[in-house]
Amino acid sequence: MSQKVINLLPKSRLKDLYQEMVFHRLLSAVWLSVFSFVVVIGVQVYAQFELQRRVTDYQGRLDQVKQQVNKKENSDLKAQIKGVNNLIADYKNMGDATPKFSKVLMAFSVLPPDSVSISSLVIDPTKKTVVVSGFSPTRDAVLDFYKAIKNDTKNFKNVDYPLQHIVRPTEVPFQFTFSINDELLK
Predict the structure, then answer these.
(1) What is the pTM of this model?
(2) Within 13 Å and on the Cβ side, how many CA atoms surround 13?
(3) CATH number for the domain that contains residue 135
(4) With CB atoms counted within 10 Å of each terminal CB, which end of the chain scores lower, N or C?
(5) How do residues 26-76 score in pLDDT, each as one tens digit?
(6) What's the domain range around 72?
(7) Do 61 and 129 share a structural domain?
């Protein structure tokens, strides 16, 4: 059997007790919040001071290391710079000693007519000569190509074209040999 609980307090007093209980719970929650807030603020202030102390400590160590490294690094860096400068000078000297083939190619590329096919282009920098061979559908196109090279006296000279290559009127293979002017290789 279950017992029934009967509260004999008047309703106004019950209401007061209920409100008092709610007030105490709210007060406990407020005090807990205030305590948590104070703890969080305290931890943040401590963390800020600790981090500031560490930054100052690390900055001092970094300055010491920089001073030590600068002494050794300056001599190492100077040696590296000298080595790189020597390498650059070597490349520059090699570049100055090597003919400028791109100038030769640029000067040559505008000369062949559209119908002429170039199959080989050999540049000999020691002899300063070019040997070009290819194929043309007509004899006139080969002769136009020959005249274009011969007339480009600014860049090329001494064009050698054996006449036996122009015996056929069509389907003409050709091979020219000519010299490069010194100014083009500078």
Answers:
(1) 0.47
(2) 4
(3) 3.30.1360.100
(4) N
(5) 999 999 999 999 999 999 999 999 999 999 998 988 888 887 776 766 777
(6) 10-98
(7) no
